[in-house]
Design a protein that fits this description.
The protein is of the alpha/beta class and 267 residues long. The chain has a domain of 167 residues: Rossmann fold. The protein has eight helices and ten strands. The strands form two sheets. It has a six-stranded mixed sheet, sandwiched between helices. The protein has a four-stranded antiparallel sheet with strand order 2-1-4-5, covered by helices on one side. Helix 4 packs across helix 5. The radius of gyration is 20 Å and the shape is globular. It holds the Pfam family ABC_tran. InterPro entries: AAA+_ATPase (IPR003593), ABC_transp_ATP-bind (IPR050319), ABC_transporter-like_ATP-bd (IPR003439), ABC_transporter-like_CS (IPR017871), Nickel_NikE (IPR014137), P-loop_NTPase (IPR027417). This is ABC transporter domain-containing protein. Keywords: ATP-binding, Ion transport, Nickel, Nickel transport, Nucleotide-binding, Transport.
Length: 267
């Protein structure tokens, strides 16, 4: 489904205010794969390079070197027609649900954007499709006429997810898509994502710093540190025992529900 092959990236030379010489790479020789129907968790602390890698996979930022193959096609070498098809099958849900939408558009217009771009539906067919999508993400057909500010954060993220699945894509990049939500809404969205994956046979790239969320939804986990992949493995509790420093840093950020259990993560 997706192959990232030895991708490196850097952001040019330092400014005159910085020390001389080239800036260190944001990404260095990163390689990973995602098979059909698989959810890969891409973890790391802030600045590890995971969101930059996500942008490169989405075709939003060309890497300094390396390849990104989606369904066997190099997304940075594909012609316009092929790229259009690939973009249909590759969707994204961003962290900030409010900045990801036009505040003047209704939920129906937001969800209908990809349908307008790729489908040729009658007005009635589009309305039925949007209503079905709203129901699938736990909202109601009556929500179609609401503006973004009329939704809670968790509800609006459901609208964004409905937009992402509207074209029945093959892969969805979830870039910190639950980190701005409270624990209750996080749990609800993770459950929804699992249900949609089962229904549509979706693949996910789940970018997060939350190891608990990754263990909930992911099949495998890759951990980044300073632009490099430093750990890969199945999404099992065994990762909690890893001695890899970047993994230990992620584990140490977990706070158990009861204060008496928190001491075990301080070492």
């Amino acid at each position: 489904m997706l192959q990232v092959h030895e991708v490196s990236h850097r952001y040019g030379k330092r400014s005159w205010l910085e020390r001389s010489g080239s800036r260190p790479p944001v990404l260095a020789d990163v390689s990973l794969t995602i098979e059909q129907g698989v959810c890969l968790g891409l973890l790391g602390t802030s600045g590890a390079g995971k969101s930059t890698l996500g942008k490169i996979i989405l075709g939003l930022e060309r890497p300094s070197q390396g390849q990104v193959l989606f369904q066997g096609q190099d997304i940075y070498r594909a012609d316009k027609k092929v790229l259009q098809r690939l973009r249909r099958d590759l969707q994204v849900v961003f962290q900030d649900c409010y900045s990801a939408v036009n505040p003047m558009m209704t939920a129906a217009q937001i969800i209908g954007e990809p349908l307008d771009n790729y489908e040729r539906l009658s007005a009635k067919e589009q309305q039925r499709t949007i209503e079905k999508l709203l129901i699938q993400v736990g909202l109601t057909p009556q929500d179609a006429s609401k503006l973004p500010q009329q939704f809670s954060g968790g509800q609006l993220q459901r609208v964004n997810i409905a937009r992402a699945i509207a074209l029945k894509p093959k892969l969805i990049v979830l870039d910190e898509s639950i980190s701005s939500l409270d624990m209750v809404h996080q749990t609800q969205i993770l459950s929804l994502l699992a249900e949609l994956r089962a229904s549509y046979g979706l693949s996910y790239l789940f970018i997060t710093h939350d190891i608990r969320a990754a263990l909930t939804i992911c099949d495998s986990i890759a951990v980044m540190d300073q632009g490099r992949l430093v750990y890969t493995g199945d999404a099992t509790d065994s990762i909690l025992e890893s001695g890899q420093p970047a993994v230990r840093q992620l584990v140490s950020s977990i706070l158990p529900d009861h204060p008496s259990g928190r001491i075990m993560f301080n070492g």
